[in-house]
């Protein structure tokens, strides 16, 4: 069977803290969750599928971020997440997080990166790390520090950088200097774009030299942009359930999968946030396969595209291809 081994290229660590993981993290450094039932914890960690509200979606990161403010918590979470991914049938994942979000109790970005790398080493699940800079103003130095750390730890599972955060408030075009710095450092990068903003955001990411685009669904409104994405071999990291929850697309049935496929753009399907969106890459893949009646070739291409577009080395990609095709 072709589809037993999944790949997730777009997965946030802090959005993938399950209620069980939350209780373990609370024991390691608080805050205490003793007053909450499992059902209450689930509600605190998971967005309503039909809410279509970006602010509500983002509010679900409050609790996991509060539980990831010590090195021990970050390390344990990374380890537990990989065990969860293995149990769900994943073969490979690129985990991402923003080191500057974990300093509420004094943890520096370097300490945060080292903690996540220790968590990666504790599991033999095949995972790599993407470091996220954050949209905003006044955090330019923190963003540059994130990219410098990515370059420094590139030999230790850090494979790329990203830009996340409020796309509608802080347009992609404002980050030209930051991505000039990424190019200077020789870092590959993906950028969240075309989720809460229009095709111009994806165009800016493309112009910066992104080799992957996080979401990118609004590119479907611009045929010339799609043609350029396809021509440059840039891959879209689609996260369908998340994109419905944040209002980027109306419904899963209204998802522009067919028009994107027909444009020849390399597509992948990913979870984004396993707890906040209550999903995983396997479920997203099956949803797209069933709703859009994908044939075996079309469905298989989503998996093989993910391998081709991963930031892993060629030997890892060859191993993943072999497993998927076996
Ligand atoms: Zn994301």
CA-to-CA gap between the ends?
Answer: 8 Å
Small ligands present: zinc ion
Q: What Rg is obtained from the alpha carbons, in whole angstroms?
A: 18 Å
Shape: globular
| Strand order across the largest sheet | 1-2-3-4
**Helicity level:** 40-55%
CATH class: Alpha Beta
Per CATH, the superfamily is: Metal-dependent hydrolases
CATH architecture grouping: Alpha-Beta Barrel
CATH topology: TIM Barrel
Task: Please write out the topology.
Layout: E1 6-12, H1 19-29, H2 38-45, H3 54-59, H4 62-66, H5 71-87, E2 90-97, H6 109-122, E3 126-134, H7 140-152, E4 158-164, H8 176-185, E5 190-193, H9 199-208, E6 212-215, H10 223-232, E7 235-238, H11 240-245, H12 257-262, E8 266-269, H13 281-291, H14 296-309, H15 314-325
Parallel strand pairs: 1-2, 2-3, 3-4, 5-6, 6-7, 7-8
Helix pairs in contact: 1-5, 5-6, 7-8, 14-15
The structure holds zinc ion.
Describe this structure in words.
- The protein is of the alpha/beta class.
- It has a single domain (6-325), classed as TIM Barrel (Alpha-Beta Barrel), CATH 3.20.20.140.
- The chain contains 15 helices and 8 strands.
- The chain has a 4-stranded parallel β-sheet with strand order 1-2-3-4, with helices on both faces. Strands 5-6-7-8 form a 4-stranded parallel β-sheet.
- Helix 10 (223-232) links the parallel strand 6 and strand 7.
- The longest helix has 17 residues, at 71-87.
- It is globular.
- The relative contact order is 0.15.
- The model has no long low-confidence stretch (mean pLDDT 96).
- The chain binds zinc ion.
């Amino acid at each position: 069977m072709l589809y037993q081994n999944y790949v997730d290229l777009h997965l946030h660590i802090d959005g993938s803290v399950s209620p069980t993981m939350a209780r373990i993290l609370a024991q390691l450094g608080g805050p205490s969750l003793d007053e909450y039932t499992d059902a209450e914890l689930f509600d605190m960690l998971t967005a309503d599928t039909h809410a279509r509200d970006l602010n509500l979606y983002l509010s679900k990161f409050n609790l996991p971020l509060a539980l990831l403010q010590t090195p021990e918590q970050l390390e344990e979470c990374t380890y537990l997440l990989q065990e969860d991914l293995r149990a769900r049938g994943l073969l490979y994942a690129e985990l991402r997080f923003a080191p500057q979000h974990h300093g509420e109790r004094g943890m520096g970005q370097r300490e945060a990166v080292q903690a996540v790398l220790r968590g990666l080493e504790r599991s033999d699940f095949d995972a790599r790390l993407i470091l996220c800079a954050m949209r905003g103003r006044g955090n330019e130095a923190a963003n540059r520090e994130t990219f410098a750390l990515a370059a420094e730890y590139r030999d230790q599972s850090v494979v790329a950088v990203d830009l996340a955060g409020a796309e509608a408030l802080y347009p992609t075009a404002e980050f030209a200097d930051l991505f000039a710095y990424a190019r200077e450092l020789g870092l590959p990068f993906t950028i969240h774009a075309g989720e809460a903003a229009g095709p111009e955001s994806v165009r800016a990411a493309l112009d910066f030299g992104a080799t992957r685009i996080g979401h990118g669904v609004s590119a479907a409104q611009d045929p010339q942009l799609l043609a350029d994405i396809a021509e440059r071999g840039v891959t879209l990291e689609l996260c369908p359930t998340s994109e419905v929850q944040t209002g980027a697309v109306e419904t899963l049935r209204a998802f522009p999968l067919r028009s994107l496929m027909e444009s020849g753009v390399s597509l992948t399907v990913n979870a984004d946030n396993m707890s906040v969106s209550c999903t995983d890459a396997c479920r997203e893949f099956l949803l797209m396969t069933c709703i859009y009646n994908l044939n075996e070739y079309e469905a298989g291409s989503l998996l093989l595209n993910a391998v081709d577009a991963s930031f892993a080395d060629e030997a890892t990609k060859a191993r993943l291809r072999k497993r998927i095709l076996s």
